[in-house]
Amino acid sequence: MSKLRTFAFIFIVGFLLNLLWENLHSFLYVSYMGGPITQFILFKAAIFDAIVILMLAFVSQKFFVGNDFVIIFSGLAVAVAMEIWALQTARWQYNDLMPIIPFLNIGLTPAIQLALTGWVSQKVVSKR
Fold first, then answer.
1. How far apart are CA 106 and CA 69, in angstroms?
2. What is residue 63's predicted lDDT score, i.e. its pLDDT?
3. Is the pLDDT score of 13 beyond 80?
4. Residues pairing with 92 in the sheet
5. SS3 state at 103
6. Where do the H-state alpha helices sit in the chain?
7. What is the pTM of this model?
8. pLDDT at residue 1 greater than cutoff 70
9. Mean pLDDT computed over 49-56
10. Strand 100-101 vs strand 29-32: parallel, antiparallel, or unpaired?
11. Residue 76 to residue 101: CA distance in whole angstroms
12. CA trace torsion 25, 27, 90, 52 (10° rounding)
């Protein structure tokens, strides 16, 4: 499979996994930018997540030969940083059901999302 096809497939798999993830854990949020969380917002979030996964996969494959640890660690680091920023800028707000990571005070599901969906995306594509 050509590199372009590989990266296109990573994007598609990443998008589909994140669209599912966004829908499954959206009930853990109160609002997005003070308004309701709509399907369009979840769709845009899944596109953004797929772009991040694509960039992480590119860096992982280009410099680290697709090392699983790199995609997991970098996905975790990016997700934690994005979550801290989003909460500090009131981009979204959790409800009482969101499991919180102590000391970081961020949600567990968004913190692990990119690491897990990025790793699965890379695994699915590498098995093809």
1. 22
2. 67
3. yes
4. 32
5. coil
6. 3-25, 39-64, 68-88, 108-127
7. 0.90
8. no
9. 94
10. unpaired
11. 13
12. 20
